[in-house]
UniProtKB/TrEMBL annotation:
Residues 19-111, 211-244, 375-395, 444-483, 535-555, 626-680 are annotated as: Disordered. Its main location: cytoplasm. GO terms for cellular component: cytoplasm; nucleus. This is Zinc-finger domain-containing protein. It comes from Serpula lacrymans var. lacrymans (strain S7.9). Residues 122-222 form the Zinc-finger domain. GO terms for biological process: regulation of DNA-templated transcription. PANTHER family: OS05G0300700 PROTEIN, ZINC-FINGER DOMAIN OF MONOAMINE-OXIDASE A REPRESSOR R1 PROTEIN. Residues 220-234, 444-475, 626-639 have a biased composition (Basic and acidic residues). Keywords: Cytoplasm, Isopeptide bond, Nucleus, Phosphoprotein, Transcription, Transcription regulation, Ubl conjugation. Residues 653-670 have a biased composition (Acidic residues). Residues 542-552 have a biased composition (Basic residues). Residues 31-44, 55-66, 80-90 have a biased composition (Polar residues).
Length: 713
């Protein structure tokens, strides 16, 4: 038994043979040198008594051994192989075909195939094989040492990005030094690809941004500029050029010059604004509506060089009111009171009236100046002589009248002769304390009217909302009625502001020097507007009390006769060229267009609201103002304009109570030798448009559509 164990031990010792096996090239370390001499690794990687696999010769002698020993040797062999692998970890080397940035200036060799013998690259956009000659590489440096290297083909550059492949190639590397430093040189061109511009629309780049693919580019684009858009929109057709409007120019049958007419305008506006302070009756105020003569006066002698005006009682009433508003003291006050008494008892004799005024002027010039602010400014009370009588005037003299003519040297037979005197008295009264107090109170009343308008609009909105809740179906007619009611309140407020306007001036001058005037509405209209605002603010129906007044809105025939200047726009100047106008002269004269004096200046009228709007468009077109420019900015609202300076809004805008602009500045704006500025032209256009809207509302007589009636009872 012991002998068998010893033989078995000897056999095991003989079977353990150390064999030196060179390492496999598959397990060789990457950093090991191939040319290095082989060194035995027995002492390095194995223990001294570690088992090695048997040689082939020995394995033939060991065939009788059982199978489990064979499996054990296989296991030991595999463990030895694993030990060798773990001792030297393997590192993968970068392949030459790795994607990403490449060294700046490095040229990548193209791959060759039967289809592309000169070489090919893959396009970054379409990812197709493209010949090397149809591919361009990005030279933009993403780092200091590496360029982008993305490649795009010629069709994709044109269809997708609108870039010219040949132009980029032909340009070469010509660029400014600063731009050239951003690119890698040596490629024969300078090109920054869409990916570096953050405009690449390929599938991968859009997916990285979380966007959907753009899809196929479709047909090749004829216009490279449209390549960035997946869908090209047809360009909008150019708008047709607007035709130049031809407003209708209607001649006014009056021979007044601009200065003579403006004197009458100023007298009328002052009396209309301060009628209550002057004590002038409504009848006399209405006479001032007709600038060229009351009740057709002036048509008796058409050859007169002096245009008729108002009646003698009207002139007398105005003079008494103006003298009573003067701030005088001492002897001047006593002489003025005495003159007022004499004029009041002089009847309607114009010569007697002028005789008293002449005596009063002489007394003022000998003694004193006006007290109050006018005296401090150095102004003295005076007025000119009357105008000479017309040559065709018939003089009926009495003994007292003849004595008065001989004393003054002037025979006054027409009220128009006294226009310069009344104009001078108006200028003197403007500086009095009574006028300033009236203006201050007017500003407060204007704010109150604006508050009433806002209250009326609020009540109307509440009524309409309640009406909508009570009904199941929508009634469009009631909606239209509500909108008309709101518009009526707005127009009534605008109409009422004329009652508190501190003064009125021309709307402006156009590009060719024409002067535009729009007089204030009459006293009857403004009073009715004030009554209406008071009623609607309290939720009541507009007042329709009978006041014994004439019809407020004149007929179309009456308005087209151009007698009342508050119902049309008056224009002083020459006609535009024949191709830009339509002319309607006085129907009684029946004058054709061929006989019109195109070189002379005269008065023209626009009484139709549509023609006034057309006139505003014509001015904007001729002045070179676009439709947007013809609408003035908010900053231009307080500039010089014929619209009343007291403005308010139903929507809550405060009334402008700032002081008036300097008179000299306004005179400069109306200087006929100066061309108007673009801002002044804008204000003229705005004034015409607003007056057109107001006149259209004033002339509307459909009481069923306009529940807020400012007319008859």
């Amino acid at each position: 038994m012991a002998t068998k164990k010893a033989d078995k031990h000897i056999f095991r010792r003989l079977s353990q043979v150390y064999v030196e096996i060179p390492p496999s090239p598959l397990h060789r370390s990457r950093n090991a040198s191939i040319s290095a001499p082989h060194v035995s690794s027995v002492n390095q990687s194995r223990k001294e008594n570690a088992l090695l696999p048997l040689a082939n010769s020995q394995m033939t002698h060991n065939q009788p051994s059982n199978s489990h020993k064979k499996r054990k040797r296989d296991t030991e062999e595999s463990s030895d192989m694993t030990l060798v692998d773990n001792s030297q970890p393997i590192k993968k080397s970068k392949s030459s075909g790795t994607k990403g940035p490449t060294a700046a200036g490095e040229s990548i060799k193209p791959k060759v195939s039967d289809e592309f013998p000169d070489g090919y690259h893959y396009c970054h956009q379409c990812y197709r094989k493209r010949d090397q000659s149809a591919i361009i590489r990005c030279t933009f440096k993403v780092t200091k040492e590496q360029s982008c290297g993305a490649k795009y083909c010629k069709p994709c550059l044109k269809n997708r990005y609108g870039l010219d492949f040949d132009a980029i190639k032909a340009k070469g590397e010509i660029a400014k030094s600063k731009e050239r430093s951003k690119h890698a040189v040596g490629q024969g061109h300078i090109f920054k690809c869409p990916r570096c511009n953050d405009s690449c629309n390929c599938v991968r780049c859009r997916k990285a941004k979380g966007l959907r693919p753009t899809g196929a580019s479709g047909k090749k684009s004829k216009d490279p500029a449209a390549a960035r858009k997946t869908e090209t929109k047809k360009p909008r057709a150019a708008p047709r050029p607007k035709l130049l409007p031809k407003p209708v120019w209607t001649g006014v049958p009056i021979s007044l010059s601009l200065s003579d007419a403006e004197d009458r305008f100023h007298i009328r506006e002052f009396v209309l604004r301060f009628a209550s302070a002057l004590g002038v009756s409504r009848t006399h105020v209405e006479e001032l509506e007709e600038i060229q003569g009351f009740r057709g006066r002036g048509s008796e002698d058409d050859d007169d060089d002096l245009v008729a005006w108002v009646s003698e009682p009207c002139v007398k009433s105005i003079i008494l009111g103006l003298l009573g508003m003067l701030d005088l003291d001492g002897e001047a006050a006593k002489s003025t009171d005495a003159a007022i008494k004499e004029i009041r008892h002089s009847g309607a004799n114009l010569n007697k009236l002028w005789a008293e005024l002449s005596s009063l002027r002489d007394g003022w010039s000998r003694t004193i100046a006006i007290s109050s602010s006018s005296a401090s400014s150095g102004k003295r009370l005076t007025f000119p002589d009357p105008l000479p009588p017309p040559e065709s005037a018939t003089v009926h003299q009495t003994r007292s009248g003849a004595a008065q003519v001989n004393a003054t040297g002037v025979n006054v037979v027409r009220t128009a002769q006294l226009v310069p005197i009344l104009h001078a008295l108006v200028d003197a009264v403007i500086d009095t304390d009574a006028v300033r107090e009236e203006l201050d109170s007017g500003l407060q009343e204007a704010k109150e009217r604006a508050r009433e308008a806002r209250e009326g609009l609020k009540r109307e909105n509440e009524r309409f909302e309640q009406e909508k809740q009570d009904e199941d179906k929508k009634d469009k007619s009631k909606l239209r009625r509500h909108k008309r009611m709101a518009a009526d309140i707005e127009q009534v407020l605008k109409l009422s502001t004329y009652a508190y306007a501190p003064r009125l001036s021309p709307l402006g001058r156009d590009h060719e020097g024409r002067t535009y005037w729009a007089l204030s509405p009459g006293l009857v209209e403004t009073e009715a507007a004030l009554d209406t605002l008071s009623s609607v603010s309290q939720g009541k129906t507009a007042s329709r009390k009978a006041r014994g007044r004439k019809r407020m809105v004149p007929s179309e025939e009456h308005r087209s006769s151009l007698r009342k200047w508050s119902w049309f726009i008056g224009v002083w100047g020459m006609l535009p060229p024949p191709e830009e106008r339509k002319i309607i002269r006085d129907s009684e004269d029946d004058i054709s267009d061929d006989s019109v004096d195109e070189e002379g200046e005269q008065w023209w009228a626009f009484w139709n609201p549509e023609e006034i709007s057309k006139l505003a468009t014509w001015i904007a077109y001729k002045a070179g103002l676009s439709e947007k420019e013809s609408r003035p900015n908010e900053d231009d609202r307080n500039t010089h304009s014929g619209i009343p300076l007291v403005e308010s809004s139903v929507n809550g805008e405060e009334v402008d109570d700032s002081p008036d602009e300097d008179d000299n500045e306004n005179d400069d704006c109306m200087d006929s030798t100066r061309m108007p500025t673009r801002g002044q032209l804008k204000m003229l256009i705005k004034g015409l448009q607003e007056y057109s809207a107001l006149l259209k509302w004033r002339t509307s007589r459909d009481e069923e559509d306009h529940k807020i009636a400012l007319g008859d009872s």
